[in-house]
Amino acid sequence: MEAESEPYVRLATLRQLHQVVADLNTARSLSDTVQAVADGIVTGLGYELACVNLVRPDGDLVVAAFAGNTAAEALITGRVGSRGSWERRLSMGERWGALHFIPHHEGWVLTEDDVPQWHTEGPDPRFADEWHPSDRLYAPMYASGGDGELIGVISVDRPRGGRRPGAWGQEALTMYASQAAIAIINARLRSNMQRALVRLEREQQALRASEESFRQAFEYAPSGMAIAEMGGDQHGRLLRTNDALCRLLGRPASAMRRYSFADLVHHEDVGTLLRTSAEGGRAELRLQRRDGTFVWVNLRNSVVADTADGPRFLLTHVEDIEERKRHELHLAHRASHDSLTGLPNSAELRARLSARLCRRPHAVRATAVEALDAAYDNAYDQGLTYDDGTTAYDDGFYGDPMGEGDPAFYDHHVHTVAPQEGVGEGVPGHPDDGTKGLAVLFCDLDGFKSINDRFGHQAGDAVLIEVARRLTTCVRDGDTVARLGGDEFVVLADGLGSADAADLAVRLRNAIIPPIRVDGRAVRVGASFGIGWAECGMTVEEVLQSADQRMYIEKRSRSKVHRRAG
């Protein structure tokens, strides 16, 4: 019977096994733990050589630690054996419980495989349980008992005493392999946790650096920046604003947190703000300063997203574009207004007149109320009937945006109609019949050429400026006074009847007749007015030509005395 069977030997072995297992759990790293596994076999289990092979992520096994022989350690540590070769070895030989023993007379076929090994040749055993140098004993390590995932294999060689381990030695090696597997798994967990903690700390440091960088970029940006809530009852409320935005709007940061951009935007720009998308949206609009004035800004939105909860905050860049807008408006005003008088020029006059006209002639209704009713209520049933027999939803000027022939499309355009010449009550065009239209008053100054010839162009320009001022003061808000060119002016006045237009022409003429002071002298000009009417079916040129012709008729009908000026 082997010496290990003695009770005192078993007790000593258990003490040694307890100590080496304790050493496994005190190792600081995975590499230290694996080396402690190999060293524990030599110091605690009575083997001269021990090797620990660990499964790599690709399935092959690498020699991770060696104990008992420095030369052999240098030879095979780090070398790799394929998973197939290892599975072959673990399927051969004798099964000693969880252990695998391959005697030398079977193991010779393994000398040429790729598993790292240190076995040497030797004489045949002299007795049945004598250890041969080419014997192989493996203790597999599993993640959870014998049925779990293979995490490695312990190889042992040269048991002290030169005998194969008995039942007690086999049990001790099996228990040790089980404890080694637990220690290796725990070491891996600690290693992974340490790496995760290091990575987390680095990420937190990067996040802190990023937040600090963002804070500085936000606070010290030369243009306005704001962070607003997204969603919920407080959607759009400003959470944070930088100094540049506070200076731009003349409001302290504490006061800004009570508002949203919807509270500060100009009422005419509310629709623009609401149509601006949160992600990548841009808008040019006006925001109110603390003193009640408005400033033009360009808003650019982006979403600050939370990976778990989705979009949370709206980051808005606010750029002051007041100077650019002022320049654009100035250029637009110059393009659409007369440089001398400041009145709308010929192009702007034609644009405003064109906006009121369509190319379909409108059938005259008995009353203006009937015309509106037909425009909105009857389009579905009959369509609007024009002089050429077509209807509002016929394919023509308006097109067929809802599908060709689709009766759901009807004409929203309120047609411009003209009072008709006629006499008697109830006849369209009679001053009392209620017909209202867009009057076009064509004005030509009488005697203006003589002022230019006698006093020069500077005096003529002064007269034109004063005439423009007087015409403007005589019309309503919403009416248009435009300079057509030279000494010709045009007034557009909507919602007038024939008598109203005639009265307006008289008021305008009377406003022009009084003397005009130019360079210390008083000069006079007269004015001839022709009243035309804009009507759908007419072109802009036809409307202006009609008013012009009526002006010349009126000019010829008045005596030369009444037209004299200077």
UniProtKB/TrEMBL annotation:
SUPFAM superfamilies: GAF domain-like (SSF55781), Nucleotide cyclase (SSF55073), PYP-like sensor domain (PAS domain) (SSF55785). Residues 436-566 form the GGDEF domain. Residues 281-333 form the PAC domain. The keyword Lyase does not apply. Residues 186-213 form a coiled coil. The lineage of its organism: Bacteria, Bacillati, Actinomycetota, Actinomycetes, Kitasatosporales. This is Diguanylate cyclase. Pfam families: GAF, GGDEF, PAS. InterPro entries: Biofilm_reg_signaling, GAF, GAF-like_dom_sf, GGDEF_dom, Nucleotide_cyclase, PAC, PAS, PAS-assoc_C. It comes from Streptomyces finlayi. PROSITE patterns: GGDEF, PAC. Keywords: Coiled coil.
